[in-house]
């Protein structure tokens, strides 16, 4: 009876009003996201009014856009109900426990047993869920909804609404692009604040991952199993591979830059600078696996690199002792088989006074990597070894934190992580200081290893993983999709130092290398795997001589 009476008052309206109501609800419950974003932005006093208004409007429009995709008769109400239930749960978790629902969190939830989960259920949470979740989810079913007819005309109308909303959302985003993107890059967790979409996307990811894990993972490829030295050598080899971070080729005098950012290595006459080397990716995640893979950029499948041997496996198999010194975030899996691994994370070296004096904020200056170098070089000095030094280099946006005070040769630097607060000149100064400092560190590596010049074959290779945008065309930092990324992000410095013993042992014509190094864009990350094998005298069927920078310079 009551239900029948209630049904008499059932409102009737078009489907898009339901979406508007739903999106308004979503917009209100996202207040944590706005305040968090604005707090991050206003830390640098950049909270303009237009931005404050834009954030909720962007969320509202985005919610409308997303919901339109589910706007047909039998899908809209179930979608909205389910979405409201999720919204309520993640809103509660966020507000009460400060939990953000990314895929790791969803995975945790899936793996949590029911007993553990029950500890979160109490009268307060239950009441909250009923009021903000169950009730509105039920209310969605109350009104009678008029859906658009399934004809071409209504389809076109829906598409037109979608395109218009999309354009307005994109427009609002672009107006605030600079402030939004820089703040986001510094605080990537912010995207996880957008509820319930973060949770929906994360859940989809977890389900996809689960399906993929159940389907047999690719069989591990032991590419390196037949790798060996060509011949036993007269002298032991020391090869130091310095992996740079975010150094861009454009800021080197060899590429026409007006400042000299290599004053320290300039004094080392054996140093060769390669002009405009092409990077494989625009981020560490992409470039590092690529630099260590036997495959070229066009051949590589990034889902499979963890299931196949890379450069370090070939080196290991050939009998070299390897060391990895880490001062960046991580080696992104490429050092997984190296036993001598050391990370110079500040928290790990706090009890070492000398080392921790080389740290600022959460990271350490790259000089910490030199601390162990003497010891490694001195130990078992008649054995061949390969030492990887992974620099933090020019990692932004806090360039000013990468350089000790005494190396801040360019004055007037940008001293905040919010690059939009600085002039182009201040950013450039701070960035160039990081290159100068990296150059100092490389020169120190060469100085230390030079002690062994007479007795060893020695090579030092420095190459950066990707470049950086410093505000050109409104772009900052890196990680732009490769096809649209500017060359600032895709051209990197590379330097090589070989002692006379090494040149002789490998029959290399140094002058030929120098001539090739002057040719712009002659080399790319694709050359690294094959050239390193070559300089280490390693024989394998995966070696390609046309990608080896030394092969055309053999005497
Ligand atoms: Zn990087």
Main β-sheet, spatial strand arrangement: 5-14-11-4-10-6-7
Tally of helical runs: 22
- Look up the CATH topology of the largest domain: Alkaline Phosphatase, subunit A
Architecture of the largest domain, according to CATH? 3-Layer(aba) Sandwich
Q: Approximately what portion of the residues adopt beta-strand conformation?
A: 5-15%
For the secondary structure, the number of strands is 15
Overall mean pLDDT stands at: 87
> Biggest β-sheet, characterized?
7 strands, mixed
Q: Helix share of residues?
A: 40-55%
Give the CATH level 1 class of the largest domain: Alpha Beta
So, the CATH homologous superfamily of the largest domain? Alkaline Phosphatase, subunit A
CA distance, first residue to last residue:
99 Å
Number of domains: 2
Poorly predicted parts? none
Ligand names: zinc ion
Gyration radius from CA atoms, angstroms: 29 Å
- Overall structural class, as computed from helix and strand content, comes to alpha/beta
The outline comes out as: elongated
Structure explained in plain terms:
By secondary structure, the chain is of the alpha/beta class. The protein has two domains: 2-214, no CATH class; 238-401 and 428-553, Alkaline Phosphatase, subunit A (3-Layer(aba) Sandwich), CATH 3.40.720.10. The chain has 22 helices and 15 strands. It has helices at 2-8, 15-29, 31-42, 49-68, 76-97, 103-111, 114-118, 123-139, 152-175, 177-186, 197-214, 263-266, 284-291, 311-317, 353-356, 368-371, 373-378, 424-450, 487-490, 500-505, 510-517, 526-535, and strands spanning 12-14, 144-146, 228-229, 237-244, 271-278, 321-326, 340-343, 359-360, 363-364, 385-390, 457-464, 469-470, 476-477, 491-498, 538-539. The protein has a seven-stranded mixed beta sheet, with helices on both faces. Strands 1-2 form a two-stranded parallel ribbon. Helix 2 (15-29) packs across helix 4 (49-68), helix 2 packs parallel to helix 5 (76-97) and helix 6 packs across helix 11 (197-214). The longest helix has 27 residues, at 424-450. It is elongated. 38% of the residues are buried. The mean pLDDT is 87. Zinc ion (ZN) binds at residues 245-246, 284, 465-466.
